[in-house]
């Protein structure tokens, strides 16, 4: 259905809107680059969610996130791209690797990385993908982004927008980050106190925790 | 106090005594005996006072309507005529004797408080029946007697015989009470009132539309209560209760209630000659059958029970020939000597340790152990056999005289056929009565063999009562037959020459024939050892009796008779003995006609309920249970499953929304 | 460039993340899949922002600002999420989501004790669907 919709979109593009927006059959260089990087990103994402080696999943996530940073660059949003590299590739993935380490995740292939819910998940995911792709293609098959001219996401432009129009939400966000910081610390400390209690008596610790919550 | 107030107090006092006895029975055991005896004594004094004040004159009528009850009013009414006054004296007298006797008889019984309270309640109910001038109030007393009888017969409920007998007594009397109730309603509708005086007035003016129907319906209840054929079978079984209970309930008072009821409403029955003939036939079958059955019983109390049925047959016979004076006269004298017979039998059972005549006949010197019981029982048996000048002679001759009077066709209400039936069968029964009285006396007191065990003297309370009761048995008839007509309808109660000679002659013949048969068979007795005595001969009389009843069936093979070749009754009855011993198979007939169909129906209903109805119920429950199990299976606790279902639903909804929005 | 390209890529990445959330057993892998989904949204935001800034002369750059916010929130979320996973791991000795089944219907899962245990899976669920 998606393919059929795409095909009809191509056909209508070729006839009526050929003058304004170029067809899908004659891609520009940026488009080719975007597609190639997109294929790599998507493939890496697939491997991330299917691999049986947990640490490899984190590493493939790095590939995916890096690929997305390249896509941002291709869309002329350079500031976002660097932020992506800095925060995601730099910190989030490192955090995740620490998490894997702390929970003693097995190194190497673990046969039970996927839960029994796998086929239901696959069905839901494919159905969602079909619906989304169909709707998106049906809606935006003729829309064209003009990437020429000044980049839309240079640091200057983004900085101006952020600190002129979005300054209040930005400050609120900093408060949120602070709260998250404090929360993470509290959770970790609490868990530590519980962990010492657990070694003494298991049922007592559980009731304590229930009361704390 | 006015006579009316006194009369209200007569049934009320024993009732209060019963309530107090039930309340205090556990907390104050020392008061139980006074509480049992004193209200009955007071009640007797008041009843005598009422009788003296009433004096056989105009009936005392008093009524209060407590609350309006609809179309036909129910009133708390008294109607005291000569019948009511004298029967109340008898009831209170016998009840007092029984209460005093029971204090000795159930000396060590742990259930004595409730027993005494129930006897008091029973007395109160009977007095209510006697005095009541309203049929509905009478019915209340009637039913209270039924339930008291149930409890008292089942006093030894540890034995299966007593349990079965109490149930049987209750069910059989209720079987008669249902038509009785319908009959009362029909009578009240026809007469427009439950008051006895108004009913009788309506009858006198020919106001009854369905006299035969009403009379027959009422007869069913009377037959149940007074143990007349075909509803008599509960009475012999009711002997599984304690002996004082048998004396009070099943000899002197409760069974008399039915006779008394007909005597009160005799004009209603006389309005239908068919009912009178049915009554006569019922009386005849009852008299003759019970006489034969009594000859074949082995349990001394069952002999007396069948004798009670037969004597009640005399009373209904008297009513069938329209002479209620004779009927109530016989009721009074019979009440006295039958109570004496039962109480003396209780003493004998205690002394002998058995209730079996066959065992007593192999026991020497029993009469020396219980001289009081021996002499008083001799008097009572002579009265029962209607030998002059004992009281039974006069009352029975008055019945036979009334029947003879009817056969000549001088009465307008009663068909001559009824008179002939009652007269002929009554004379035959006089023969049988003398025979079984003689047999009882010979077997109990003229036994040969090992000496009877000596348990010492009987309690004074038991023996004194015997002598007190012996007085009316001896002299009541002779003293009263001339004065009683003044209390009753005024009909002649003096014995006539023909019936006296015939009746006494037949009675003598019966006695002599039985004696001759006994002389022939008694030599056999020594050769066939037989008998068993109670396990605890030292216990109180009630315990001995309960054990004797419980062991009769294991020892002799049947609760009613024993395989004793030395029994003169066996020689006299010949081939009939086999049938007479089991009450002419009436229980088997009932079992085939009623018990088995009811059981079949019950098992059918049970099958329908278990297999058919329950299947639907189970099915109705199973579907939700399956649904619930299916839904519960979804609750795995796995968050991923929940989210999967959530998202799948979301996708379906979104796709549907998109399709609708784009008009696809 | 056609807007369809980033849009379709974003949709596919989102569904990949979705699959990961539903199918992965380890809680940290689930968190990774959540990151994938967030990134798919970010790509969408950036693409539409670029398109609108050219076509509609939109100068607020709300898409890019929102993307930055999302990145910040994702960082906070991953911190909190990992803390929770660590707490669960310390208490239960496992970080497998399908072993945290205290809310399951069972013969004896009633009373306040069962409710207290339900707290962690509920938190997990909130995280997983965020």
In summary, what is this structure?
Chain A: InterPro entries: NADH_UbQ/plastoQ_OxRdtase_su6 (IPR001457), Nuo/plastoQ_OxRdtase_6_NuoJ (IPR042106). Chain A: This is NADH-quinone oxidoreductase subunit J. The complex is a heterotrimer of chains A (213), B (664) and C (130). Chain B has 664 residues and is mainly alpha-helical.
How would a crystallographer describe the biggest sheet of chain A? none
Compute the number of structural domains of chain A: 2
Q: Kindly give the count of domains of chain C.
A: 1
**What is the CATH class designation of chain C?**
Mainly Alpha
Main sheet record of chain C: none
Q: What gyration radius of chain C follows from the Cα positions, in whole Å? A: 19 Å
First-last Cα distance of chain C: 31 Å
- Helix fraction of chain C? over 70%
CATH class of the largest domain in chain A: Mainly Alpha
How would you describe the shape of chain C?
elongated
* Structural class designation of chain C: mainly alpha
Task: Walk me through what this model shows.
The complex is a heterotrimer of chains A (about 210), B (about 675) and C (about 130). Chain A has about 210 residues and is mostly helical. Chain A folds into 2 domains: about 1-10 and about 25-145, Four Helix Bundle (Hemerythrin (Met), subunit A), CATH 1.20.120; about 165-215. Chain A has 8 helices and no strands. Chain A has helices spanning about 1-15, 30-50, 55-75, 80-100, 120-140, 155-165, 165-200, 200-210. A two-stranded antiparallel ribbon of chain B has the order 1-2. Chain B is globular, with a radius of gyration of 31 Å. Chain B is about 75% helix and about 0% strand. With about 675 residues, chain B is an all-alpha fold. The mean pLDDT of chain B is about 85. Chain C starts with a helix and ends with a helix. Chain C is elongated. Helix content of chain C is about 75%, strand content about 0%. The longest helix of chain C is centred in the middle third of the chain and has 31 residues, at about 60-90. Chain C is built from 5 helices and no strands. Chains in contact: A-B, A-C, B-C. At the A-C interface, α2, α3, α4, α5 and α6 of A face α1, α2, α3 and α4 of C. Chain A: It holds the Pfam family Oxidored_q3.
């Amino acid at each position: 259905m998606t393919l059929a919709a795409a095909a009809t979109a191509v056909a209508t593009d070729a006839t009526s809107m050929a003058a304004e927006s170029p067809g899908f059959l004659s891609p520009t260089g940026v488009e080719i680059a975007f597609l190639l990087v997109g294929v790599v990103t998507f493939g890496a994402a697939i491997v991330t969610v299917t691999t049986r080696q947990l640490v490899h999943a984190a590493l493939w996530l790095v590939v995916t996130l890096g690929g997305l940073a390249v896509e941002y660059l291709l869309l002329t949003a350079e500031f976002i791209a660097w932020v992506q590299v800095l925060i995601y590739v730099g910190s989030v993935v490192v955090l995740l690797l620490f998490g894997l380490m702390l929970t003693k995740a097995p190194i190497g292939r673990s046969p039970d990385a996927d839960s029994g819910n796998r086929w239901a998940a696959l069905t839901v995911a494919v159905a969602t993908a079909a619906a989304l792709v169909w709707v998106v293609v049906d809606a935006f098959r003729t829309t064209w982004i003009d990437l020429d001219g000044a980049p839309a996401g240079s640091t200057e432009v983004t900085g101006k927008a952020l600190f002129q129009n979005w300054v209040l939400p930005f400050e609120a966000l900093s408060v949120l980050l602070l709260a998250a910081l404090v929360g993470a610390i509290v959770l970790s400390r609490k868990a530590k106190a519980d962990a010492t209690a657990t070694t003494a008596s298991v049922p007592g610790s559980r009731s304590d925790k229930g009361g704390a919550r | 106090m006015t006579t009316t107030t006194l009369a209200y107090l007569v049934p009320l006092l024993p009732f209060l005594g019963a309530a107090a006895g039930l309340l205090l029975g556990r907390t104050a055991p020392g008061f139980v005996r006074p509480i049992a005896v004193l209200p009955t004594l007071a009640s007797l004094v008041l009843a005598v006072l009422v009788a003296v004040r009433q004096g056989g004159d105009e009936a005392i009528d008093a009524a209060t309507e407590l609350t309006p009850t609809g179309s036909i009013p129910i009133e708390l009414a008294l109607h005291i005529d000569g019948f009511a006054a004298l029967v109340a004296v008898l009831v209170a007298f016998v009840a007092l004797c029984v209460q005093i006797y029971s204090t000795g008889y159930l000396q060590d019984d742990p259930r004595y408080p409730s027993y005494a309270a129930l006897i008091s309640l029973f007395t109160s109910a009977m007095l209510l029946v006697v005095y009541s001038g309203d049929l509905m109030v009478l019915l209340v007393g009637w039913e209270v007697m039924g339930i008291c009888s149930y409890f008292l017969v089942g006093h030894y409920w540890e034995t299966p015989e007593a349990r079965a007998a109490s149930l049987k007594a209750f069910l059989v009397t209720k079987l008669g009470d249902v038509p009785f109730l319908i009959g009362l309603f029909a009578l009240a509708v026809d007469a427009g009132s439950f008051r006895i005086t108004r009913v009788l007035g309506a009858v006198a003016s020919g106001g009854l539309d369905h006299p035969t129907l009403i009379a027959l319906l009422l007869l069913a209840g009377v037959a149940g209560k007074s143990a007349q054929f075909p509803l008599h079978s509960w009475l012999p079984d009711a002997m599984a209760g304690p002996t004082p209970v048998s004396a009070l309930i099943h000899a002197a008072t409760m069974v008399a209630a039915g006779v008394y009821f007909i005597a009160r409403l005799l004009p209603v029955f006389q309005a239908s000659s068919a009912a009178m003939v049915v009554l006569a036939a019922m009386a005849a079958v009852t008299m003759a059958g019970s006489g034969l059955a009594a000859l074949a019983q082995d349990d001394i109390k069952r002999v007396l029970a069948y004798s009670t049925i037969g004597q009640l047959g005399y009373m209904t016979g008297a009513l069938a020939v329209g002479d209620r004076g004779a009927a109530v006269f016989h009721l009074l004298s019979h009440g006295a000597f039958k109570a004496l017979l039962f109480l003396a039998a209780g003493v004998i059972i205690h002394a002998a340790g058995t209730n079996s005549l066959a065992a007593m006949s192999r026991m020497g010197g029993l009469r020396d152990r219980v001289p009081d019981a021996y002499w008083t029982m001799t008097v009572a048996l002579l009265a029962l056999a209607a030998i002059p000048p004992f009281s039974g002679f006069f009352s029975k001759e008055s019945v036979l005289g009334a029947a003879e009077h009817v056969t000549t066709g001088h009465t307008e209400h009663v068909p001559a056929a009824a008179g002939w039936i009652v007269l002929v069968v009554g004379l035959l029964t006089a023969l049988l009565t003398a025979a079984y009285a003689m047999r009882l006396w010979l077997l109990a007191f003229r036994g040969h063999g090992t000496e009877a065990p000596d348990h010492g003297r009987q309690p004074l309370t038991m023996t004194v009562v015997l002598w007190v009761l012996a007085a009316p048995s001896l002299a009541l008839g002779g003293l009263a037959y001339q004065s009683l007509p003044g209390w009753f309808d005024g009909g002649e109660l003096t014995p006539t020459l023909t019936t006296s000679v015939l009746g006494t002659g037949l009675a003598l013949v019966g006695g002599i024939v039985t004696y001759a048969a006994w002389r022939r068979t008694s030599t056999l007795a020594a050769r066939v050892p037989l008998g068993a005595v109670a396990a605890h001969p030292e216990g109180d009389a009630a315990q001995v009796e309960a054990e004797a009843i419980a062991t009769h069936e294991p020892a002799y093979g049947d609760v009613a008779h024993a395989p004793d070749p030395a029994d003169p009754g066996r020689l006299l009855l010949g081939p009939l003995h086999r049938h007479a011993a089991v009450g002419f198979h009436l229980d088997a007939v009932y079992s085939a006609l009623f018990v088995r169909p009811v059981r079949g129906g019950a098992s059918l209903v049970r099958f329908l309920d278990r297999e058919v109805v329950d299947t639907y119920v189970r099915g109705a429950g199973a579907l939700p249970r399956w649904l619930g199990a299916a839904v519960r299976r979804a609750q795995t606790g796995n968050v991923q499953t929940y989210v999967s279902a959530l998202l799948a639903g979301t996708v379906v909804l979104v796709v549907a929304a998109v399709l609708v929005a784009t008009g696809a | 460039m056609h807007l369809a390209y980033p849009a379709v890529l974003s949709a596919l990445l989102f569904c990949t993340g979705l699959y990961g959330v539903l199918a992965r057993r380890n809680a940290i892998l689930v968190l990774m899949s959540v990151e994938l989904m967030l990134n798919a949204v970010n790509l969408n935001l950036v693409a539409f922002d670029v398109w609108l800034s050219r076509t509609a002369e939109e100068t607020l750059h709300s898409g890019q600002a929102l993307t930055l916010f999302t990145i910040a929130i994702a960082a906070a979320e991953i911190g909190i999420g990992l803390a929770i996973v660590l707490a669960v791991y310390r208490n239960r000795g496992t970080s497998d989501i399908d072993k945290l089944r205290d809310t399951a219907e069972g013969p004896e899962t009633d009373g306040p004790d069962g409710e207290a245990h339900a707290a962690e899976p509920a938190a997990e669920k909130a995280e997983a669907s965020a």
